[in-house]
Amino acid sequence: MADDDPAVSVCFSVTIGDKELGTFISCEGLGVEVVLEQREEGGFNSQVWQLPTRLKYTNIKLSRPLGPDTKKITEWFASMTTGVKRRTATIIARNARNEPVATWNLSGVVPVRWTGPSLNVESPKVATETIEIAHHGFLPA
């Protein structure tokens, strides 16, 4: 495949507030759903009305192998001992030449979970970490 194909060798750089968390190799959960309310109208039996009510945003999971940037995540979580503040975040998908392919700006980001590696000498695998964040929606780029 060509090096300039944006779907090949994509990685994701992540900044939350003023903290650059580094690059991740996996990003799952970027999405939004329109929550619908169903209404049945008396005497109108051919359909049920689907009324949009609100937007629902899924949590985002970012994963990568352990490395020097792991320290940035632990420092970010440690900074929340005095309280969690909602921040804006930017996720940038980059191609193999580190050029931006797509950007998502998120409002009201809070951490949900950090999962560290499962270390087992009997099954050597790449040690990975995952962070999960929640947000209140997308901001204009």
From TrEMBL:
A Pfam entry, by short name: Phage_T4_gp19
Give the protein's recorded name: Phage tail protein
